[in-house]
Amino acid sequence: MRAMNVGDKAFFYHSNCKTPGIVGQMEIVKEYSEDSAWPTASCSQWQRLTCSAGGARKPGTPYYDPTATKENNRWSVVHVRFLKKFAVPIWLSELREMGQAGGELREMQMLRQSRLSVSRVSQSEWRFLSEIADKKAKEAGSQHEVAS
After folding, report:
1. I want to staple 84 with a disulfide (CB 3.0 to 4.6 A). Which of 25, 46, 65, 104 is the partner?
2. Which pLDDT score, from 0 to 100, does residue 53 have?
3. Which has the higher per-residue pLDDT, 51 or 75?
């Protein structure tokens, strides 16, 4: 995450849920900063990364980490802008299938090192997954929700 630059595109991936998958796209609008703020109730799901994931240095907050100091805070955040919510998510089970030997995603970092919460996506992987999302939306007779 600390290597992300302004203008980079990223997939929004739900991982801490019953059925993980890619649910949309976002753009980095501000590079790495310390994760020290607590998100407000007014933050939407897409803004949570912008508002911060949660107060690592604030005692009493759910994500408090007593080892995090101002000089050595291992928690970081990037600020993002919503681009697109997929009409139909691309589920992790589908990604794994496409990542098998001979598949389009066989080299995808996230599938090779599954414990990564943030991983690189090549340009060809980005194009392929974007096309898959478009195809799934069309097959469902639906459209993506796009930023206005």
Report:
1. 25
2. 44
3. 75
